[in-house]
Amino acid sequence: MTAVEAKAQLITPVFRMGYTDQLITAKAYIPKGQTKSNAAPKFSLPMIFTEEDLAKFRQPADDGSLELVNVRDVCKKLTAIKWPGKDPKVIFSKNVEGEDIPLYNWPIKNGNKMLEANAKKEKPSKLDHLKDCFQITATSNEDKPPKLSYIEAGSRRMLSRDNPDDMKVIKRLFLSGYYAIAELSLLAQSTPMGNFVTFYLNHVQFRKEGERIGGGGLMERFEGVLGGEADLDPTAGAIDDETY
Q: Rounded to two decimals, what is the model's pTM?
């Protein structure tokens, strides 16, 4: 098999949306201690799933139907195609301050591990909503914004960021803590920053309201995005060594 085959299309089960300001407007990650970024602005959405949810993704089958799959298994399959015979703990490790951290770049982040890492830094927690859950962050390039929609009277209603009336609806429906489904493209790839199974965000559809995350207005500050700084790129997730 060739590297170009290390890709997949998935539809998520209903998930809880994490901080959503970067879903609406593309922003660039600013590393801690810097005031500007050379990175290209991106759209991004942290998607929050339970353990059970991870086994409820859908993937197009050869006969055109949608088959039930476990997203972990899909990521493992893409990893084996892209890097055959190699240890995932080596493929996805990252050297941080002299320490090799296995599966640092693995895309399925364990919320409890993220909370533990945050606690070790003695920082106020903004991650309590991830307790006993898993987070997968999907991104889109600025020139390919993810489509946004909702269901109205049984039909799909598409929304445009260029339409002021639609933007009012977007800001009302796509709030942190609310629920959605998404269409994703996955690609296993090697980059100058490391090896990744990258989740690309194609389409997000609002499903239902939920308890808000952060308790503020729509534009909750997302550490590491313009206006803030962080130790880790929030679009990449956080350290996790148990989810493979």
A: 0.84
As a whole number, mean pLDDT of residues 150-155 equals 94
The DSSP 8-state label assigned to residue 145 in this structure reads: P
Work out the widest C-alpha separation in the chain, in whole angstroms. 56
Residue 171 pLDDT: 95
- Residue 136 CA: distances (Å) to CA of 22, 201, 236: 15, 11, 9
Runs of H (alpha helix) within the chain: 21-24, 71-82, 88-91, 111-120, 164-173
Contact of 105 with 232, CB cutoff 8 Å: no
**CB neighbours (10 Å) of residue 29?**
24
User: Which of 1-15, 41-55, 90-104, 220-234 is predicted least confidently?
Assistant: 220-234
User: Taking a C-beta distance cutoff of 8 angstroms, is the pair 96, 233 a contact?
Assistant: no
Please give the Cα distance from 66 to 157 (Å, whole number): 22
